[in-house]
Amino acid sequence: MLIPLVRKTWSPRGQTPVLRHRYRHDRISAISGISVSPRRRRLGLYCHLYESNISGDEVCTFIRHLLRHLRGHVFALLDNAQIHKGASLRRLCSRFPRLHLEPFPSYAPELNPDEGVWTSLKRSLANSRPDTQADLMSRLSREVRRLAVSPRLLRACIKHSELPPFLP
């Protein structure tokens, strides 16, 4: 959102930092996922950003994007959000037999490595003050690219989750 995420920071004694901003509820919606190649254990980050709310159609678009870029069987672990349960997603699964959708248990963010991705991105954007939705989109895109080229950070997101260990 354009309302800044405020984190603790340092300042000279007696000089409380002030973060001025416009109170606007414009937001960026995002869908993302971490890929792990089965043989070499290479990590990848895929992300789509939208200026409006995400629906089941955007989820299908994202998964079709994954299917174009990933070989072999694709196992997608999804949280239980309503947008992950629509008829368009069921049609997509029937059209692509190599696509396998697995739900996380109800409300289990601790199992989702993607939560680590968003924690890291929010931390890197903390205490900043974008003026427009385009400015927020630009900053977020830059941070997503930075994270996507860091296998060390992506591996940490997976290892920090409470999924059963599958990375060496």
Comma- or semicolon-separated keywords:
alpha+beta; 168 residues; two-stranded antiparallel ribbon; 4 strands
Major sheet summary line: 2 strands, antiparallel
Q: With helices defined by DSSP (H or I, 4 residues minimum), what is the helix count?
A: 5
* Average pLDDT reading: 85
Proportion of residues in β-strands: 15-25%
Q: Any idea of the CATH topology?
A: Nucleotidyltransferase, domain 5
- CATH superfamily annotation: Ribonuclease H-like superfamily/Ribonuclease H
Q: Given the helix and strand composition, which structural class is it?
A: alpha+beta
Strand tally is 4
Low-confidence stretches: none
Radius of gyration: 18 Å
* Distance separating the two termini: 37 Å
* Order of helix and strand elements from N to C terminus: EEHEHEHHH
- Strands in their spatial order, largest beta sheet: 1-2
* The CATH class: Alpha Beta
